Structures are given as structure tokens and as C-alpha cells.
Amino acid sequence: MKVKVLRRDEDQVVRQSKHDLPRMQRNTAPELHPFEAAREYKRALNSVKLERVFAKPFICSLDGHRDGVYCMASHPKKLSQMLSGSADGEVRLWDLSSRTCLFNRELHKGFVHGVCFTPLGEHFLSVGQDKTIKICTLGEEVEQTTLLGKSFFKDISYHRSKDVFVTGGPEVELWSPHRADPIQTLTWGHDTTNCTVFNMVETNIFASTADDRSITLFDIRASKPIRKIKLEMRSNRLCWNPQEAFNFTVANEDHNCYTFDMRKMKRALMAHQDHVSAVMDISYSPTGREFATASYDCSLRIFDHRSGHSREVYHTKRMQRVFCVKWANDNKYITSGSDETNIRVWKATAWEKIGTQSARQRAASRYGEKLKERFKHHPEIRRISRHRHVPKAIYNARRQKHEMIQAQRRREQNLAHTRCDDEQERTAGQGREEEEGEEGEEGTWSHPICPRGRIHRGVTMRTGVALHIPRHTHTHMHTITQAHTHTHILAHASFACIFSCCSLFSGYVHI
Known about the structure:
Strands 1-28-27-26 form a four-stranded antiparallel beta sheet, with no helix packed on it. Strands 2-3-4-5 form a four-stranded antiparallel beta sheet, with no helix packed on it. A four-stranded antiparallel beta sheet has the order 6-7-8-9, with no helix packed on it. The protein is globular, with a radius of gyration of 36 Å.
């Protein structure tokens, strides 16, 4: 005799303290829960609705600059500190946690085109329109060193491990902070370079974009550039993927961003489109899965690195043209600098709650994300999750851009059909000329409307009508030659006249 005994582990049943919630036993067998899918769908629908309700991405704005903010840099060791440079030559160091300015000084006369930190964060560098490179040491008293160049500078990028940096301008130059002259000058062409960025993984390689619409790859171990391509329009900024060493994305003037593999640069891996004006800056997340873009259309967008369309768009009523964007190193915040002197701080995930969360809140959040991922292709959930409000100007511009693209596609299709028809008519005309000189012989030709149809040809002796009969419809008829009898010729001639009158518009009969 078998005796079954119920046994339960006390750790799974008994509460550890009186403040804990009672633990409920639940049988997860699917046959006992026939409506589980319907319940989970309803939970996913509620979760995506609450996501839109709590989507409030804007956190704060940092005031203090007197002119537009055109460049930013994040501290490599401290998550809460960042640099910003404006059009009036002022450089500011910010503490994002307290929302205060730690340091501000007018280091340049004119535009500040680029700022960066050293790998350890002990110094920061800035370049500007006044042909100078400023090296400042952070501490109780900021010490300042100046390097003088031959021409203005447009950008600066520091090597991740070596004590060298590269600048862009009329020439691409490799510098050491301990020397007054550049170590190496790398050029390919004569146009101004507006962006230079070191690779975060392959640290000896850096890329640049120039005003001649080119993207150039350099290796500091070589004496000349290694590769160069040209796009249809100019690229404003470039950013390497921090997790995929060979991939980078450029922000282009044609409203799109393009992702390239530096090993195969003949064709872009992905085109990211949704902006309605030029894309001015781009910044990858530390995970390498997403990137943020700043545009001349007064908006920010967040893209998945393998998606052609944005998952999020940020905008405010007062925000003007956005010239720079930076993704924080903790993957939670995005900062942007715009033309109306403000620096804005945004959430990387618009509906994410700021602050500490209990274990139950974190578990509920993960459960909701899994449900949305499971039911994301259902029409109602997809419609709610994709819906975004945009300013009227962007909405109208996007609609007009869509109409222009569709008109261009129709125009290209019409031209392609016209060229195809002309080619077929030319081929058919050549076939007719050959047929007229080969009377009494059997052959085939391609019909201009049905080029794959094989046609049987015959010529009548009395009427002089070239009779073309489709072989697949009249296979019992034979070609008329001089060896036929007079009666046979008259019969075929009468049938040829009737057939020519009936099929004059079908293209089968030629007189």
C-alpha cells in the first residue's frame, strides 16, 4: 500500500517576522488556469497605459550661460560632474546632483568648439575660435596652461590610455600636453574638419568628419589616413559604439543618422530617420544599445542602435535648436544644450521612477516590462506604446516630408517603367524588321505587351498580310509556303483577313 504525505518546507510557508506578508501557495499548472493569457494581456495593456501616464522625462534646467551651449563633456570618474562650453567663450563645470556651477571662466575669445577631460579626470581641455588650447587643472585653485595653434580648432578628443589628444580644424593634429607644437599632422584633402573622436575600444584609431562631406579613419601609429568615404551631405558629428568596436554612427545634414562598420564602409548598416531637420549631435549610451540625437528641429530623439525609427522624442515649449547632447555614464540621464543658453537634464527612460524602490516595486516593474515585451505586437498595445505628441511645426514638417518622399518614389517608378517600355518597343521593332526580310520562314518574336509569349509566324501569298498566331492558342495551323495548293492558299488567306480585322488592336497582326 502506498501512502502519499503532504510535506511543506517551513522556509516557504512560515513568515520570518510579523511584518512580512503571508505567503500564498499557488499551483502553476496551466490546465488549472485557462484564462491566464487573457489576464496577462489585460495586465500588459494596463502597464503600457500607465507608462504613458507617468512619462514625464524632463527633470531640470541649468541656467547660467549667457549664450548658446555648443559642446559638453562628462567626467570619466564622477557621475555628477560635466563640462559645458558656450558661444561667448565661457566654460562651466557643473554638479548635477546639487544643480550648481562649481567653476566658470571665460577661457576663449569667441566660440568654444570642444571640451574634454583627461582619462583620470584631473584636467580638462578646451579649444575655440581664437587658435588656443586651454589645459586646466581641477583643484582648489584652477591652474591654466595655453597652447597656441596655427589656425582655429573645431573639436578635441583625448586618448583613452595615452597622454595625447587630437584636434580638428583646417588640419588634423596630434598633440601632447607637454609640448608646444603638434607631434603629427594628418591630412587628406583641404576642407575643414569639424569632428574628431577616438575609438573607445581600438584606442589608437580615431575618425573625423569634414566639410567636404567626407568621413575619414586615422591610425596614430601610421603616417597617413587609412580610409575615407563621402556621403551625399555633410556629417556634423560622429560617435563610436562603446561596446561594438568597429561600429560608429554619424549625424548628417539630411535629417538622418547612419551607422557604419569601419571594415565595410561601402554601405551603411542602418539609416535612422525621424528628424525633420539637420542632426547636430549624437551620443551613445554606455551599454551601446541606444543613442540620443540632438537636432535643429528643436527636439531630442532616442534610437535603438538596430532600429530605423526612434522610440522616444523629447521637446519643450521654450527649447530652441539643440546643438549638443550627452548620455550620462550611469545610463539613467541625458543632458542637452540648446541655443537659448539652457542645459536640460532628461530621464533616459521617460516613465522610470527616480529614487529608491522596494523589492516589490522592482519586481512589479520587471514583470510589467516582460508583459509589454510579450504582447508588443498586439495592435492596441502597439498603438498606445508608439503614440507621441510632437509640436505642430514638427508634425506638419514630417507630413510634408513624407509627401515629398512618396512623390519622389512615384517619379522614379514612372521613369523606370518608361525606360523599360522604350527598351521593349525597340526590341520589338528590331524583331519586326527581321521578320519582313524572312518571308515564308518559321520563327519567334517577343510581343511588346507579353514578352514571354512565343509567336508563330505565317505569310499569306494573296493578301501580303504577315499573320502572327500565338503558338499556345493555335498550334494546329501551319506556315504557308509556295508548295501549298491554290485552294489551301485561298482558305488561309481568307482566315488571315478575318484574323487581321479581329486582332488589329492586339498587336499580333502587322500589315
